[in-house]
Amino acid sequence: MYQQLEGGHGRAVYFRAPRIKAGLLLKGEAPTVKLGELIARVRDLSSEGLLCDLPANNGVPQTGAVLPIQLRVRDESLFTASAEVVRVESIRGAARIAVRFLGSLLDRDQVRARAQDAVFRDEFRAGLSVYDAVPSEYRLAISEAVFVLSHWRDLLNRREREIRNGRLEPELTELAELQAVAERRVRLDWRNAHARASEAAKEARSSPHVISASKRLTERFLTPLLLDAPIWRQAYLKPRGYPGDFELMNLMYEEAVRGSSVFARVMHQLGREERLAATVRDRKEFLVRELETELGRHDRQRGDLRIANIGAGPARELEDFLLRVNLESRLVVTLIDQDQAALEYAHDKLRRASVRHGNRVELRCRFVSFKDLLADTALSEEMRDQDLIYTAGFFDYLPDSVAAVLLVRLAGFLRDHGRLLVGNAVDSTHVKWVPEFVLDWKMIYRTPDDMRRMAQPIASICHCDVAFDGSGAWQFLAAERKR
Which helix (H) or strand (E) holds 178? Predict the structure, then answer.
């Protein structure tokens, strides 16, 4: 039996204690660490050490230095130890420092419990004053939204119990009729409450302190009313550790009715109608058309048609493309994602969609991190001479400085007249309330001018423009490599 186990073959042969992101230790409450007399922000931690960021002008410790460290939340100590600095890197004006604990191991569960205690004590002392900074209009808007959802949840749950009335197989037509009627009525009330909260949220963004208090109010009283609906639950809890995962994208794409109750199914559907959720289907259609355009302009004398998708997720646009077109030349598709499950899902779907094309489709799935994408020389060699590189939602999470570096990297992978398509949500105030305040989902929205400024580092080698999907909610920086 043991002879059949393969260990880290094909992945990594060196083991290290698993790390977790600092923000996952305690939701919304990232700890800090005191390194000697310096205060740094923790990025991730394990039983044996941690990684943290320190402003470069604060006197960066040298590799090999031994310092007392103290992990803290809300000015309370969670863990103390001596630690050795094992790595120091300069990252965009800050120092990234890795330390190894000496003579101590961090117990993650114990530290989490202490952090929870510290937060509770702090909030207990504060009482209702934690909401003092919430603007009055926003407070009223959230109260109205809570009232709307609570009313319809209780009424629909009561009626569903009456219909079921102990029957194992209730009349499905009765529940379907209830759901249809409820969806029309709840949609009207929810949209009215939604509009008021979206407008009130403008004032709630006036400062980081006001944002924090307003988000706390929203997540404490409104968000829980939505979590029985699968799409809201997936978006808020982020079980795969990052926002917008491939499972959530599939919930947005699929029209199947989901939820364990009539109210949950109604709210699931209304979640699919949120602006950025509803328009991912328009974004997908835009990408399918761009893939078809690339196929049409491909010169077979130049060899294989080479397409790469960065942050591939479920790659539903490629599935649709393969099911629609007839390939006469060979197609090499490279999918890059840092979620192995996303690649497994996309690979299965694309292999099935490729059957009709015989052996003319080659799929390459690359399970690499963002850092690998920037630095991996083997991947760089494989990515050379692409006809089309595109990414739909990856740049929504990259600050301008990082986005510019990645743009230069991706443009370098294009062959002459190869194209790069970079998607980003259009900056619009009325779409931000739900992601930011209800779902704790932070994105970087950009204007078309922002996209053009972001493209300046590649303007010397690419012709650049901005295109929009059919909904107008998503824009794409469209760059074509000059000869």
Answer: helix 172-204
